[in-house]
Design a protein that fits this description.
Elements (H helix, E strand, L loop, with lengths): L5 H13 L11 H17 L2 H6 L8 H16 L4 H22 L5 H12 L7 H5 L1 H5 L3 H18 L4 E2 L5 E2 L5 E7 L3 H11 L6 E4 L12 E3 L5 H7 L3 H7 L7 E5 L4 E5 L9 E3 H10 L6 E3 L3 E6 L5 E5 L4 E9 L17 E12 L2 H4 L1 H7 L3 E6 L2 E7 L5 E8 L13 H9 L7 H8 L2 E11 L12 E3 L2 H4 L8 H18 L4 H30 L6 H11 L1
Parallel strand pairs: 3-4, 3-12, 4-9, 6-14, 12-18
Antiparallel strand pairs: 1-2, 5-8, 6-7, 10-11, 11-12, 13-16, 13-17, 14-15, 15-16
Length: 553
């Protein structure tokens, strides 16, 4: 290899040695893995003292250098650090690592170090009061501990410090970030209910949702909205009358069948029930339409959030843009990105898997299935499995085929081949009444698999300034008590009422909200877990029939 001068030679040798640093470790958080890469880089330079000093001015450009820069950038971006901060941060981290190696490369004179330590210990308090107050602190710590602390301090600063931009007169200034007093991540039912309750009380909120538009994906499925929870939220939002105008007449009808197709319980919708049915999409449309245009920022995926002073948070979006907020609300569902700010708990598989299907224009195209399901909700149950279905306002039937199964059961089914998928699912229902099996066999379109996850019953967290959760982000539970949407609505409404009742005192508002939400969510989670046991028990549907009979007495 030909090099023109010593600088090029040093750069070439440095690039070759950078190949020994290796890729990022696979295990650990992004901060830990980033520090380990930087430590390996520093150790490599310490093993080559002369190179460590020349590395301060060498300018490598080879493949190993590029791989190191790519690794460092990737880890910073994984942690939600904006692109420009990550780019400048890589330079700062490598500068510190290189300078550290250059400082300690080669043999160090013990006499020189002792002279420095003696000077610090003997500094007079009259002229150097801060040194004299604690000289040992200046000398404390192992080299490894000090290097680790330095890296973590730099990483934190890179995370939290915006890159300056060119001001109008030429000097470098830091551009102010957009600020939202209340920022809600997720424009589902709970987030929208919160925004609406705040809006009617003169408080504006900004919502950020990863969907490209309100119509980006289907919002289907029927919801029974309970009088003492979901409807209370709609009353607080001033939308109860409009909600009643949209409910699905007849939707509270109920049928419970055994696996033999025999009806064990049937109740019509006589209009006296306290849980009217509404299409989820219709309810979401009602809430969206009640908010000012621009309240929801569509296509805004939150990838990171970190605390600032005074309970504020700095939030990063996938496009690299950022904003700050006084109140950050995670309404972003089961796999919430905001949850990690208050809890390390993640959802776990409940043991039940769903396969969803639709039968369109049921009365005309699927009359037998339409009769089996009836006008409202169907439960057709047996030990460890069942069909749950409901009639939608457009006359279609939506079917949830439920199976108690290992978490990987769905992985063994090829859902790209609809007929093969139907056969695999129906194998779990051998011997069941053919009218029930037809709910899957005659389905229109593809089948949709879904595992049912839940957070632990009683999930809660210690108060964290400026941030809270609602809905599934706070208390994801199985759907077997019909509480999920109702709790999300009530959470949103009560959080909005608490914020309005404590102007200027965010912590009092969040503490009051969580004090009511935690026990309510725990009680509902217990009910949902019991509902799952009841539906798929060895004597199903006996327990469910008994429960509905008691409720009706």
């Amino acid at each position: 290899m030909y090099v023109r001068n010593t600088d090029e030679l040093h750069a070439a040798v440095l690039d070759e040695l950078l190949g020994t640093v290796g890729p990022a470790p696979a295990e650990g958080g992004w901060r830990e893995r980033l520090e380990r890469v930087l430590t390996r880089y520093t150790a490599m330079l310490l093993e080559h003292p002369s190179l460590a000093r020349s590395a301060l001015t060498a300018r490598p450009s080879g493949p190993h250098y590029l791989r190191l820069i790519e690794t460092l950038l990737g880890l910073l971006r994984e942690g939600g650090v904006p692109g420009d901060q990550a780019a400048w941060g890589v330079d700062l981290l490598l500068q510190h690592a290189t300078a550290t190696a250059a400082e300690h490369a080669g043999e160090e004179s013990p006499a020189a170090w002792e002279a420095t330590a003696r000077a610090l210990r003997e500094a007079p308090a009259t002229t150097h009061p801060h040194i004299a107050a604690d000289p040992e602190a200046l000398l404390s710590g192992t080299p490894e501990a000090r290097l680790s602390w330095a890296f973590q301090t730099l990483i934190t600063g890179i995370e939290r410090t915006a890159v300056p931009t060119e001001g109008p007169g030429g000097p470098m200034t830091t551009a102010p970030l957009p600020h939202h007093p209340v920022a809600v991540v997720g424009a589902g039912l709970g987030g929208l209910a919160l925004a609406r309750v705040l809006h009617v009380r003169g408080i504006e909120a900004a919502l950020f949702d990863l969907d490209a538009s309100p119509d980006a994906r289907a919002q289907g499925g029927m919801l029974d909205i309970h009088d003492d929870s979901g409807q209370e939220a709609l009353r607080a939002a001033g939308l109860h009358e409009e909600f009643l105008a949209r409910v699905h007449a007849g939707g509270q009808a109920l049928r419970v069948l055994g696996q033999d197709g025999v009806v064990r319980l049937a109740r019509p919708d006589d209009g006296t029930g306290g849980r009217p049915e509404i299409d989820r999409g219709d309810l979401r449309e009602l809430l969206l339409g009640s908010l000012p245009a621009g309240t929801v920022r569509w296509g805004a995926k939150v990838v990171g959030a970190r605390p600032l002073d005074g309970g504020r948070h700095r939030v990063t979006l996938a496009d690299g843009s950022e904003f700050t907020t006084d109140v950050l609300v995670g309404a972003d569902g089961a796999w919430s990105r905001v949850r990690s700010l208050v809890s390390t708990t993640t959802p776990a598989y409940t043991g039940v898997s769903f396969v969803e299907a639709d039968l369109r224009e049921a009365d005309r195209r699927h009359p037998v299935s339409a009769e089996v399901v009836g006008d409202g909700m169907l439960f057709a149950l047996g030990p460890g499995r069942g069909f749950l279905a409901h009639r939608e306002p457009d006359g279609s039937l939506h079917v949830y085929t439920a199976v108690v199964a290992p978490e990987d059961w769905l992985d063994g089914i090829d859902f790209t081949d609809t007929e093969a998928a139907k056969a695999a699912v129906l194998k779990e229902f051998d011997g069941w009444d053919e009218r029930l099996r037809a709910l899957v066999a005659d389905a229109d379109g593809a089948l949709v698999p879904r595992r049912i996850h839940a957070l632990p019953v009683g999930h809660r967290w210690d108060r964290v300034p400026g941030v809270t959760l609602l809905g599934d982000a706070a208390h994801l539970m199985s759907p077997f008590a019909g509480e999920g949407a109702n709790l999300a609505l009530l959470d949103g409404a009560e959080l909005g009422l608490a914020l309005a009742a404590h102007p200027g005192d965010t912590e009092a508002a969040l503490a009051a909200y969580e004090a009511r939400m935690f026990p309510r969510a725990e009680a509902s989670a217990v009910e949902s877990a019991r509902g799952q046991e009841l539906l798929f028990a060895a004597d199903a549907p006996h327990g469910l029939v008994e429960m509905f009979t008691r409720q009706g007495d």
